[in-house]
Design a protein that fits this description.
Blueprint lengths: L1 H50 L4 H5 L9 H18 L10 H6 L6 H21 L8 E4 L2 E6 H28 L1
């Protein structure tokens, strides 16, 4: 009987440890998903703040012969997020035309472009929050991201890519408003 009680105690301890570990993994997963979602939403707010004082003409003009317009960077971010996360993880069916992101000659209005980016960011936030614990480590490979390896890495890479272009937008806004 004593041996039986000891066995039950060990089994109960394992179950408690297993439940605690499951809770920790769930908490970590929630932290990662909501953390990514929050970061993408913060970057979107920054883009909106930077774009606010620009006219439609300024939004689409290229102040430097070697660079992009603010608007073309917005198109590029829309394509990046809709392809790498929307099409490849969320299964949206989005088909990317990357060269056109930089060469669009008949662009939408500033407001429409920003709305399209906001929708892409909302999709990314939903997708990040929807990832289960095992989803983050799922194999990931896409055009121009052959070495991403897993979903966590592509969410991270897209966030750092977004941040990089927000830096460019900061400089573009400064140059455009200075004129």
């Amino acid at each position: 009987m004593q041996l039986h009680c000891l066995w039950i105690e060990k089994l109960s301890a394992r179950a408690a440890t297993s439940s605690l570990e499951t809770a920790r993994v769930a908490l970590l997963n929630d932290t990662v998903g909501t953390g990514f979602a929050a970061r993408y939403e913060e970057l979107m707010k920054k883009v909106e703040e930077l774009a606010a004082p620009l006219s439609d003409d300024q939004f689409w003009s290229r102040p430097f012969s070697f660079g992009n317009s603010f608007g073309h960077l917005v198109l590029h971010l829309i394509g990046n997020l809709n392809y790498y996360i929307g099409a490849e993880i969320a299964g949206s069916g989005y088909v990317r035309d990357r060269p056109r992101e930089f060469t669009e000659t008949a662009p939408a209005s500033k407001d429409e472009a920003l709305q399209n980016l906001a929708e892409a960011v909302e999709m990314v936030a939903r997708t990040a929050k929807a990832q289960a614990e095992d989803d983050w480590s799922k194999f990931y490979k896409a055009t121009r991201e052959e070495d991403a390896e897993n979903r966590f890495n592509i969410f991270l890479r897209c966030a750092t890519h977004f941040h990089l272009h927000v830096g460019e937008m900061t400089y573009l806004q400064f140059a455009l408003l200075k004129k």
